[in-house]
Design brief:
Order of helices and strands: HHEHEHEHEEEHEEEEEHHHEEEHHEHH
Number of helices: 13
Helix content: 25-40%
């Protein structure tokens, strides 16, 4: 089986883990945690970072640090992984769901602009959503597939309406926006994930990056049980969201290989795009001109296919020894968020059932990718265009 995306552990991961064992620093304090935080901040172009136990916990702590609380709304694209919405819910808040742009699959900035102008009112220092009466507390763009959203426009709107920005950059480490690093894009805090299927993994874990010392200090305080001083004094409800030294050791070894990982991911995406381009019913993943994506996942979009046809295609690829999967189901179609406030989502509605992710591990060989491409071409030809594109 050619897997969809598996970790590439060909660096110094084992050496660093043995160092943890020898030193006995295996828990949430240790030199690799400190090093990992510095390395992530440098790669993100941020002043500092706080390592966490997961990408979801990074988002939750970041949202809490910028003031999101019970009863609030947070602007979020509906087309995202459910962890984005869950982090908002963990704050006691609700997502206000928006569509994505067809050109990037990221938050539609102009739709947000219209909704803020028409569907909110200012009551003193509070921006309130007219329909629900809830406070609009933050804006959370998601960097889909490692592609930054239109952050110039989104941060402009955030400043205009007095909203903090927490960017969900789970799989985007190493991406650029108009030549700028992610830390230069105006988000107050940016959250990353280092789950096992990410380009850089710690086996799990996350990180919060930013330039505002106050937010970073609060995030660190919250994620370490809000302990105050040397004794067992805690000044607010905190979380045990710390990354272990073992995880950080793996992460440090992974970050040493980041340039090569990114080059491999981008080359895999480019080859799929080039060698499937002549099939009119297959469309590439978006590559907006304003961004250099980290190309977390690669694949294709089936023109007009319905869910049943896609399931059959994935099953046939599996029979041929190739793992291929669907992608995110929008939040407004998920049971926990079906009643969340939202605007129209025609792009997400038309897109989500047609996305096919293909093998894209950084160690995918040229022959393996050639096999994936040839098999996909043969299957859609043998089964008939109508089966996959009706």
């Amino acid at each position: 089986m050619i897997p969809l995306a598996v970790p590439n552990l060909g660096g110094r991961e084992g050496e660093y883990l043995q160092e943890c064992v020898r030193s006995t620093f295996v828990s949430s304090v240790g030199p690799f945690v400190t090093r990992f935080e510095a390395d992530v901040a440098r790669e993100a172009g941020s002043a500092g970072s706080v390592a966490t136990s997961a990408g979801t916990t990074a988002l939750h702590a970041a949202l809490t640090s910028v003031g999101v609380g019970a009863g609030d709304l947070v602007i979020l694209p509906s087309y995202t992984f459910i962890a984005s919405a869950n982090a908002i819910a963990h704050c006691g808040a609700l997502p206000w769901l928006f569509d994505v742009e067809a050109a990037s699959w990221t938050l539609d900035a102009e739709q947000v602009a219209v909704a803020l102008a028409l569907d909110t009112v200012r009551e003193g220092a509070v921006l309130r959503h007219v329909g629900s009466g809830r406070r609009v507390a933050a804006l959370m763009p998601v960097y889909t597939l490692g592609t930054p959203a239109r952050m110039d426009r989104l941060t402009e709107l955030a400043r205009q309406y007095g909203l903090p920005v927490v960017a969900d950059a789970a799989a985007a480490l190493g991406a650029r926006f108009q030549g700028k690093s992610l830390g230069e894009l105006g988000a107050d805090l940016t959250a990353f994930s280092f789950n096992g299927n990410k380009t850089v993994t710690c086996g799990g874990g996350g990180a919060i990056c930013g330039d505002t010392g106050e937010y970073l200090r609060l995030a660190r305080h919250l994620t370490t049980t809000a302990r105050h001083g040397e004794e067992y004094d805690h000044d607010r409800v905190g979380f045990n969201y710390r990354m272990t030294n073992l995880q950080a050791a793996v992460g440090c070894a992974q970050l040493e290989q980041l340039p090569g990982f990114l080059a491999a991911k981008r080359a895999i995406r480019a080859r799929y795009d080039a060698e499937l381009a002549d099939l009119p019913f297959l469309k590439p993943f978006p590559q907006p001109e304003w961004a250099e994506s980290a190309c977390w996942f690669s694949g294709t979009v089936i023109d007009g296919a319905h869910r049943q046809g896609m399931a059959r295609l994935r099953a046939r690829l599996k029979e041929e020894g190739i793992e291929a999967r669907s992608f995110w189901k929008p939040m407004h179609l998920q049971t926990p968020y079906a009643a969340a406030p939202r605007v129209a989502t025609p792009v997400a509605d038309a897109l989500w059932e047609r996305v096919l992710t293909l093998p894209c591990s950084t160690q995918l060989t040229s022959d393996e990718q050639g096999q994936v491409i040839a098999t996909l071409r043969r299957l859609v030809s043998e089964e008939g265009v109508e089966q996959w594109s009706r």
